[in-house]
Amino acid sequence: GKNRFRIFSELLNAESHENYAMVEELSLAIERNQLSLAVQPIYSSEDYRLVKGEALVRWHHPQFGSVSPEVFIPLAEKHGLIQQIGNWVLAESLKKLPHWIDVFGNDFQLSINKSPFEFYDHDDCMLLLKHLLHENGLSGYNLIIEITEHSLLEHTDVTERILASYSALGVKIAIDDFGTGYSSLSYLKRYVVNILKIDRLFVAEMTANSIEYQLCKGIINLAKSIGVQVVAEGVEDDSQLALLLSMGCEFYQGYFFSKPVSVAEFGHLPGRFNHV
Ligand code: C2E
Ligand code: CA
Ligand code: CA
Ligand code: CA
């Protein structure tokens, strides 16, 4: 009835006010120094060397506390703030990258997440990227751009051009959350792809001979047969690691090895994981 409608619309209103307040605060987060980076190490199966890292943005607000990127990234995408945040992440990451190359070796690569919404401003993005690489004395070789499988299927020609322009700089392309998008794999032929990241949901639910087990095995075999690296995400225990190792997975990321750590801590991580 009428009353129920009123309550419902008040609820909706309260929600949009809250969102509005959050968007407003998010738009000020950079100038107020509320954003920071966390970095999670990625290890090679060969010798358990720390060979890559993934940069993950953090937002700490004085009243809201720590807001998950699962909450504020979609909000930023919706309200036109993702470009600004993406540029901040890129600038901060590339500032630190030369030091991490010194510490972890010339083949160290840092992964950065890109929202498909950032593609709308791709030309500006490329200019900034070139500028930042130059300013920090870097080549594209040490940088990986992660895009989700989902975002690949939307614009095809544009996407092709964008991915090619990263490749031209030596920047590697990783498909994030691999296996969760539509199961059309035709883009692997169409686009330059260097790395597949197996979504952590598959790893979490993997037990011997489960569907997830077969999926992981399939992805790893596919990657190997087309000469693409494969990273398992969300590895939390040694039984998952053992299964993935038996399938020949080369790279590992997850709480079993390390949670994401602060930028300051990352440079102090041991260059090799002590596997027992
Ligand atoms: P993602 O790109 O799939 O990042 C991996 C997420 O899994 C991270 O969550 C990481 O902390 C978490 N994780 C890593 N290992 C484990 C594990 O062993 N177990 C479990 N349960 N979780 C693990 P986080 O940092 O909260 O980020 C969530 C998502 O937010 C990211 O998912 C990514 O989609 C987005 N995001 C984070 N930083 C950025 C950014 O700078 N730009 C953009 N566009 N998106 C970002
Ligand atoms: Ca990612
Ligand atoms: Ca992922
Ligand atoms: Ca994800």
UniProtKB/TrEMBL annotation:
Protein's organism: Alteromonas lipolytica
Taxonomic lineage: Bacteria, Pseudomonadati, Pseudomonadota, Gammaproteobacteria, Alteromonadales
Location of this fragment in the whole protein: 531 to 806 of 815
Highest taxon listed in the record's lineage: Bacteria
Protein name: Diguanylate cyclase
All residue ranges annotated as the EAL domain in the record: 19-274
